[in-house]
Write a structure and sequence with these properties.
There is one protein chain. This protein has 208 residues and is an alpha/beta fold. The protein is built from 8 helices and 7 strands. It has a 3-stranded parallel β-sheet with strand order 5-6-7, sandwiched between helices. A two-stranded parallel sheet has the order 1-4. 32% of the residues are buried.
Length: 208
């Protein structure tokens, strides 16, 4: 879910002391994901960047953008990302997508297309629930079919552990696992970030 994705993004940002950005936010009646991220970080170095597209309708971005009378442009996102990465003291940038790989951002642009244009390294998030194997493996298969660069999986929740099977069948390694948290706050995010940090840095260091 989007809540899980944002939570994991907060932990990655905290673990790496990275910057965070979500180019497209569709629906923000309860606050944006960037605002939620700011409330969950404890490190003093991460910068949370404003959304490029803040759309009113909580719907698929291409519909939300259409309702707002705008078109999401890949070039706008690419140029802004290059600018952020070119700032003084550049850091790693955690980019949170707008849903899954095949979520349309416009009539011609999917999230996966944007990932490829950004040359982004992808971390896949899989929540353990009844039925999670199929969508997880479909996502992995699509990444391979498009030659999307995947660092590995982060798993979440405690329903049943499908993690070893998903790792084996997908061919992508596990970076770590986050349990279902009773309380989500700065303390719990920081604790989980510390747990993820070693696996995350090991995978980044050992990239070919």
């Amino acid at each position: 879910t989007n809540g899980v994705k944002t939570l994991i993004a907060a932990m990655l940002t905290e673990a790496l002391g990275a910057d965070y950005g979500k180019p497209v936010q569709a629906g923000f009646a309860d606050g944006t994901d960037a605002e939620h991220i700011k409330q969950l970080l404890t490190n003093k170095v991460s910068v949370v960047h404003d959304e490029l597209y803040r759309l009113h309708t909580p719907a698929s971005p291409h519909i939300a953008a259409r309702n707002d009378g705008i078109t999401i442009e890949a070039e706008t996102i690419l140029q802004t990302t290059k600018y952020i990465m070119g700032l003084a003291n550049p850091k790693q940038l955690i980019i949170e997508g707008a849903g899954g790989l095949l979520v349309p951002l416009s009539e011609k642009l999917m999230v996966a297309d944007l990932i490829l244009q950004l040359h982004a390294l992808v971390i896949l998030v899989s929540r353990n629930y009844l039925g999670s194997i199929n969508p997880s493996l479909l996502t992995a298969a699509y990444c391979k079919s498009r030659n999307i660069d995947v660092l590995g999986w982060i798993f979440n929740d405690d329903y049943l552990s499908y993690e070893e099977e998903i790792v084996k069948w997908s061919g992508y390694p596990s970076i770590g696992s986050v349990p279902n948290l009773a309380v989500i706050d700065r303390i719990s995010v920081h604790e989980q970030a510390i747990r993820l940090k070693t696996g995350l840095k090991d995978k980044l260091k050992n990239r070919p």
